[in-house]
Amino acid sequence: MRYEYETWQPAVAIRLHRPSVERPHSVLVFPIYRGSIVWVKHPVRGWEVPGGKCEPAESPEMAAVREVWEESGALMEKLTWLAEYQIPQIDDSFLFKWVYWGFVEKWVDRPSDSETIGVQLGALPNPSQLQERVDISPILKDDVYLSLYSILRKHVAASLQ
Prior knowledge:
Low-confidence stretches: 1-5
Helix content: 10-25%
Shape: globular
Structural class: alpha+beta
Oligomer: single chain
Mean pLDDT: 90
């Protein structure tokens, strides 16, 4: 079985104002808890924020809430769409991914079959700090995080007030 990590491609066409498709293939979520970001550790890719594919019967928002719970045990509130980006595929097509941010309402146990092997709260690092770290997933090393950093920083700061 090949992991996504082995064929990972950097994101392109980041949109911050409105999505260009009705439904994305997958989601990425920046959960905020008391001024910190919820980080999850994937066994292959390393530390990243929760995310994953949208199931056929669920909305992107439902997928975002589910993925955060499955990977971290956090239950979300006030989930907000933030951006869309495209992921190039081998056949020259693109998958669309939507990015959300929101506040953690409370914590519960994550499922026993969770794909992550660790959860921690941490700061929102400057994008340049992530580039050199080998323990950070490549998902956070392309232009998406760089483009969203200043927006996310404001939301994290607001969570402390």
